[in-house]
Amino acid sequence: MSNPVFVALDTPDLRAAEALARSIAPHVGGLKLGLEFFAANGPAGVRFLGEVGLPIFLDLKLHDIPNTVGKAVAALAPLAPAILTVHAAGGRAMLEAARAAAPPACKVVAVTVLTSLDAADLAQAGVHGTPAAQVDRLADLTRAAGCDGIVCSGEEVGQVSARWPGGTFVVPGLRPAGSDVGDQKRVLTPADALQRGASVLVIGRPITGAPDPAEAARAIAASLKASAALPAGV
Ligand SMILES: O=C(O)c1cc(=O)[nH]c(=O)n1[C@@H]1O[C@H](COP(=O)(O)O)[C@@H](O)[C@H]1O
């Protein structure tokens, strides 16, 4: 099993991100660079961390009119990300524009319902029904637009991966048993998310905020190997 963990390097500090990336590199499969890192360090920072030698997941969650998103993705293409995020709620034409502008080897995945939201938050935004129903709707839209997969929580990944064979399922909001949930509302353990069908596990603070990040990443990788050896549900 290749390591499905992408560590979220959510810091504006380029040197701190590099030191962290190098220390945990043996225990993760890739680096996720998001808005906090990109706002501070831009494309040059992404290139710099690319020198660590791990695949880069560029998590900019693009959400705008199709023309703007297509041109933004084209501008990001030289960074050769392995994975790029957009928001599924941007609609079919925006998703199509993103897929068309991305390099063929880059997986374009669409965020469905943020893991920091629950049903009450969705209702406040005018979306009635469960997060799971909304994830299904947006997954169908993303698939119809030709994108590669979605971002959802561990609570939905089982149901949605069964509906979309061959899709890429990115799951954040992961917490090893006993770790602090923070601002996340729909959480699962990394091993459970993998067993339910996740393809990519996004893990930030449980690794980056640990007293020994390399040891935390190693322990998570070991928990995945151990659970993969067991039948589902055990
Ligand atoms: O697209 C994402 O990666 C993402 C989507 C989502 O619904 N929830 C979510 O937490 N994320 C990202 O996943 C990471 C989670 O970080 P931790 O909560 O520290 O593990 C952050 O970088 C978030 O930006």
Describe this structure in words.
It is an enzyme of class 4 (lyase). It comes from Sphingomonas humi. It holds the Pfam family OMPdecase. The structure is a single chain. The protein has 234 residues and is α/β, with parallel strands linked by helices. It has helices at residues 14-24, 35-50, 66-76, 92-101, 119-124, 131-144, 154-163, 190-195, 205-208, 213-228, and strands spanning 5-8, 30-33, 56-62, 83-87, 107-111, 149-151, 168-171, 200-203. Strand 4, helix 4 and strand 5 (107-111) form a beta-alpha-beta unit. Helix 1 (14-24) crosses helix 2 (35-50) and helix 3 (66-76) packs parallel to helix 4 (92-101). It is globular, with a radius of gyration of 17 Å. It binds orotidine-5'-monophosphate (OMP). Orotidine-5'-monophosphate is lined by residues 8, 10, 34, 59, 61, 85, 111, 114-115, 151, 172-173, 182, 184, 202-206.
- At the fourth level of CATH, the homologous superfamily is Aldolase class I
Ligand types: orotidine-5'-monophosphate
Structure class = alpha/beta
Fraction of helical residues: 40-55%
Q: What is the subunit organization of this protein? A: single chain
The ordered string of helix (H) and strand (E) elements is EHEHEHEHEHHEHEHEHH
Distance between the termini: 19 Å
CATH class: Alpha Beta
| Order of strands across the main sheet | 1-2-3-4-5-6-7-8
Major beta-sheet overview = 8 strands, parallel, barrel
Q: List the uncertain runs.
A: none
* Proper CATH architecture: Alpha-Beta Barrel
Give the tally of β-strands. Answer: 8
Query: What is the residue-averaged pLDDT?
Result: 96
